[in-house]
Amino acid sequence: MLFIPVSSPEGMGEYMRSLLVADALQEKRANAEIAFILNERAPYTAHCPYTVFGSKGSATKDSKAVEQALKEFQPDVVIFDASGRAKQFKLAKRLGAKVVFISQHKKKRARGLKLNRLPYIDHHFVVQPSFCLPPLSLVARLKLRIFPAARPTHIDAVYNEPDIAKTQQWLIDHNLNDKPFVLLSAGSGGHHINGLYATELFNDYALQLSQALKLHCIVVIGPNYPYEAPENSAAITYVRALQNDTFVGLLKLAELVVISAGDTLVQSAAMQVPSLCQAIAKDQYRRLQQFQSEGLTLAVEPKKIVIQATKVMTLFKQQGVSSQPPLKNGLSTILEALMSN
After folding, report:
1. Which domain does 88 fall in, by range?
2. Same domain, 29 and 81
3. How far apart are CA 62 and CA 131, in angstroms?
4. Mean pLDDT, the chain, integer
5. Residue 91 falls within a domain, yes or no?
């Protein structure tokens, strides 16, 4: 199987999602041959545990690299995660591969509904709740009558179910087993907000929250953050990155999470975790507004973050966090599609 996620020195959401799916697939099929096409400039490319074909920039813009990888690797399945040009889809299909397309917002979903892609898509998964996107247009619905296999299927979040025992062991290993905590993560660590790395802004939030709330803070720096993490203190623990099951476990156990409005927002909402959220990329602002309208998070106001944190934790203790219908974990749906004949 060949995974082709969007990849860059800034973000890594698509790569992490593809890696999560690849690892889960490997657990079910130990003999599965898995490869990735990744941006040569992305910091995580050198650490990918699978065969990697490099691309100059994102694979979508390097059709030569994609063509070479497809012809050399000869995959049975190709997963385009928010990536791919029509001619790349067509080539994958011509070489006999099943084509899976993953989109995460209106613009990317629309790409999967174009006539130059529809004939070559076997599965189209949308990793957002249905309330985040408008209904399909009449034209789109008519096209899908001709190409029903390419109908977009909303699968909400994609994550490993938390292994609480493993997470508790991680907390013990970091001398945090008896401390309630706040988890903060600005995603990959490569995004900027007003000239600062988002990670640095989130570190400032950790300093405020740990002092005002007397709660320990765990800050996930992100692998794309180019500098060394600050030294751990009695109030704050810094980690560069976490395996998904550990990260999800910490999400589940945290008193509060402060996160970006990427995949982690969907995951935390699916697990009904109290959260404060900040958009750090251009595609995240609308998503944050929609989740806030559904009562699933609260947008960060930097000068009021302590007041907001207190409010969110109090409300959670009184009534919890819930969506109707509850958000689901779509990992099993993707795996089923990848492994089916």
Report:
1. 2-154
2. yes
3. 33
4. 94
5. yes
C-alpha to C-alpha distance for 269 and 266, rounded to whole angstroms: 5
Domain total in the chain: 2
Q: Report the predicted TM-score, pTM, of the whole model to 2 decimal places.
A: 0.89
Q: Based on the fold, state whether residues 174 and 307 are members of the same structural domain.
A: yes
pLDDT digit string (tens) for 74-92? 999 999 999 999 999 999 9
Q: Please state, in angstroms and rounded to a whole number, the distance separating the CA atoms of residues 278 and 294.
A: 16
pLDDT recorded at residue 79:
98
Please tell me whether residues 136 and 178 are part of one structural domain: no
Q: Convert the pLDDT of each residue in 131-157 to its tens digit.
A: 999 999 999 999 999 999 999 999 999
pLDDT value, residue 172: 96
Query: Which amino acid is located at 123 in the chain?
Result: H
Does some domain include residue 182?
Answer: yes
d(CA 110, CA 124): 11
